[in-house]
């Protein structure tokens, strides 16, 4: 596949998906030109042909590179890192092998754990209206686990997990903002990391992206 084959990111129209967030930030960090096509999930457009069949898993985000289709954000990030590798393109993952493994661990954990927090503090509460309900007991436990892991990974006064920015920084910052944006207290060094990562231009471009005035449905 030629490096200059066109890239298209398939996103959801409300721009709240943490997985679209990761792919959008990755493409911006790689400094790659790409088009965006919005797939109205509330209408079930992702479950119908041709998107369903081309994406295979009928998931958003999806990426096309020339005629190649790929879904699942973690797979898209790995693909971009391999097809547009450093040093010709900026890194998405750390250069040192153990740091890279740890970044992958963090990213896999964010996708597979903390379900009560993801359900009770969805990303809509970051980009639309904060939650007005208290966390459940399970939600509190998930929040405590998130903060514990963040504290374990972070040293004092650091703005990145591994000495230089990686996509894991953006993903962990978004997860922490489920707490911060909803008024939950977090330790100072954790808040400082999350707020620093949140100001990165690629992240801010997603944060400030135009959204519908209200959620569909």
Report on this model:
The structure is a single chain. The protein has two domains: 7-90, Glutaredoxin, CATH 3.40.30; 97-204, Glutathione S-transferase Yfyf (Class Pi), Chain A, domain 2. A hairpin with a 2-residue loop joins strand 3 (62-65) and strand 4 (68-71). The chain is globular. It is of the alpha+beta class. Strands 2-1-3-4 form a four-stranded mixed β-sheet, covered by helices on one side. The termini are far apart. The protein is built from ten helices and four strands, in the order βαβαββαααααααα.
Task: Give a concise summary.
The longest helix has 17 residues, at 137-153.
Question: Any chance you could write out the topology, listing elements then pairs?
Answer:
Blueprint: E1 7-11, H1 18-29, E2 35-38, H2 51-55, E3 62-65, E4 68-71, H3 73-83, H4 97-112, H5 115-120, H6 124-127, H7 137-153, H8 167-180, H9 188-198, H10 201-207
Parallel strand pairs: 1-2
Antiparallel strand pairs: 1-3, 3-4
Helix pairs in contact: 1-3, 1-8, 1-10, 4-8, 7-8, 8-9
The order of strands across the largest sheet is 2-1-3-4
What is the CATH architecture annotation of the largest domain? Answer: Up-down Bundle
- Could you tell me the CATH topology label of the largest domain: Glutathione S-transferase Yfyf (Class Pi), Chain A, domain 2
Order of helices and strands: EHEHEEHHHHHHHH
Number of domains: 2
- How much β-strand is present in the residues? 5-15%
Distance between the termini: 40 Å
Overall radius of gyration: 17 Å
The helix count comes to 10
Largest sheet: 4 strands, mixed
Number of E-state strands: 4
Structural class: alpha+beta
Low-confidence stretches: none
CATH C-level of the largest domain: Mainly Alpha
* 3D shape: globular
Mean pLDDT: 94
Helix content class:
40-55%
């Amino acid at each position: 596949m030629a490096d200059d084959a066109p890239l298209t990111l398939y996103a959801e129209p409300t721009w709240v998906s943490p997985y679209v967030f990761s792919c959008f930030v990755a493409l911006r960090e790689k400094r790659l030109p790409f088009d965006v096509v919005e797939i109205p999930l509330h209408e079930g457009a992702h479950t119908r042909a041709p998107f369903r069949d081309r994406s295979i898993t009928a998931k958003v985000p999806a990426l096309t590179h020339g005629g190649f289709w790929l879904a699942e954000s973690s797979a898209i990030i790995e693909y971009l890192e391999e097809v547009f590798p450093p040093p010709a393109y900026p890194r998405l993952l750390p250069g040192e092998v153990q740091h890279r493994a740890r970044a992958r661990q963090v990213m896999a954990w964010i996708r597979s754990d903390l379900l009560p927090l993801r359900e009770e503090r969805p990303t809509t509460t970051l980009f639309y209206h904060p939650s007005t309900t208290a966390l459940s007991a399970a939600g509190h436990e998930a929040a405590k686990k998130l903060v514990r892991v963040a504290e374990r990974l972070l040293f004092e006064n650091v703005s990145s997990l591994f000495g230089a920015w990686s996509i894991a920084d953006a993903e962990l910052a978004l997860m922490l903002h489920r707490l911060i944006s909803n008024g939950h207290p977090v330790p100072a060094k954790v808040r400082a990391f999350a707020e620093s990562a949140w100001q990165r231009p690629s992240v801010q471009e997603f944060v400030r992206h135009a959204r519908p005035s209200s959620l569909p449905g």
